[in-house]
Design goal:
This protein has 71 residues and is an all-alpha fold. It has a domain at 29-61. Helices cover 39% and strands 0% of the residues. The chain has helices at residues 31-44, 48-61.
Length: 71
């Protein structure tokens, strides 16, 4: 192992995923909803947490609004 390395000649690149960092949060989700995404996970082969993230990302990206009417 060398004592010194020339860092400038290593061609450093910016991390392409740095703008997509994830933040761990705690959220309460109904059991039926989690079960739905787990079944969907079995069909797609993707982890259910990834599917939930993809769905929420799509909602945020498309600025979907929830229509709630209390009866």
């Amino acid at each position: 192992m060398r004592k010194e390395y020339d860092i400038k000649s290593l061609n450093p690149r910016k991390n392409p995923y740095s703008n997509r960092l994830k933040k761990q949060v705690t959220i309460n989700i109904d059991s039926d909803t989690v079960d739905y995404f787990k079944k969907l996970s079995d069909v797609t082969g993707l982890p259910y947490q990834t599917l939930i993230n993809l769905y929420l990302t799509d909602c945020a990206k498309n600025k979907r609004q929830l229509n709630i009417s209390w009866s």
